[in-house]
Amino acid sequence: RAKASLTQDVCFYEADMDQAVRARRRVTQALREALENERFELHYQVQASVSTGKATGYEVLLRWKDHDGRYISPADFIPVAEENGLILPIGEWVLRQACRQAAAWAEPHRIAVNLSPVQLSHVDLPRLVHQILLETGLAPSRLELEITETAMITDMERTTHVLRQLKALGVSIAMDDFGTGYSSLSTLKAFPFDKIKLDRSFMTELDGEAPQSRAIIRAVLTIGESLSIPVLAEGVETAEQLAFLRAQGCNEVQGYLLGRPQPEADALLNGVVRIAATEAAEPQAERAA
Ligand code: C2E
Ligand code: MG
Ligand code: MG
Ligand code: MG
């Protein structure tokens, strides 16, 4: 009985593996096809200053439109693209397309582009970014690159070297999803980041009874202040969250409360208006420090 069930488990396991491998192959094929046929789109999500309520920039978020016109989330295909190397041409497309679009905007808003750790370790990124800036005419000060600490962990020395070269071009570097990894604090020590993006998981937990998230948010804001690095809170969905962040002296916010990621034209139109409305609806709280 025990033996039979073990064999059965192994069979199930192999069937699962087989299925997983085939699913990955299908996704790889579809990604290649999407790249060739330009089925990718960029959406933009507004970021705003807590004190002025004005837009400070837009995060660029990749979308894959399938044949039925539905958007597939990057969380579902970026890991596959990182595994099969397609993140390199896809990431280059994102950078070029984002810089090109932003260069044509009437207002010189900053854009924030996500970088995969694979791009940091496999491409001459400073050269590529330099080339794309020249090609599109976007001012380097309008480009911010977001990296997660995973990129730092894999090869700290090489990564900090690449980041320094990128900064020398005049672009800024943000630490994304801060507080979720294993070594967030040592990462801050290794490189002078221009911004800390506090992960949205802390926002979700703010609504619960647990006081820990509040304490952690306060601590991160104190760290940012001590190091003179502005902190942006991700995933702000409610007016209560915004009020708490404002009272604690958070510099910038991003989240559904201000606007969802949208095609560029919509994002540029709606962002500022919705922030103004939010701002007006908020009682003026005391700003700590
Ligand atoms: P991220 O860089 O942390 O981006 C923020 C994610 O949070 C986005 O998910 C955004 O839609 C979502 N978000 C924003 N505000 C809220 C909110 O108030 N509530 C909730 N629940 N979610 C919110 P998205 O667009 O699905 O992207 C997921 C991740 O995929 C990104 O996380 C980023 O790591 C990656 N990604 C997106 N575009 C690119 C890209 O062009 N290149 C690379 N390498 N990665 C990308
Ligand atoms: Mg990001
Ligand atoms: Mg993030
Ligand atoms: Mg994230």
Automatic annotation (TrEMBL):
- Lineage, top-rank taxon, reads Bacteria
Q: Where is the EAL domain?
A: 24-275
Please give the name of this protein.
EAL domain-containing protein
Q: Please give the organism.
A: Brevundimonas olei
What is the taxonomic lineage of the source species? Bacteria, Pseudomonadati, Pseudomonadota, Alphaproteobacteria, Caulobacterales
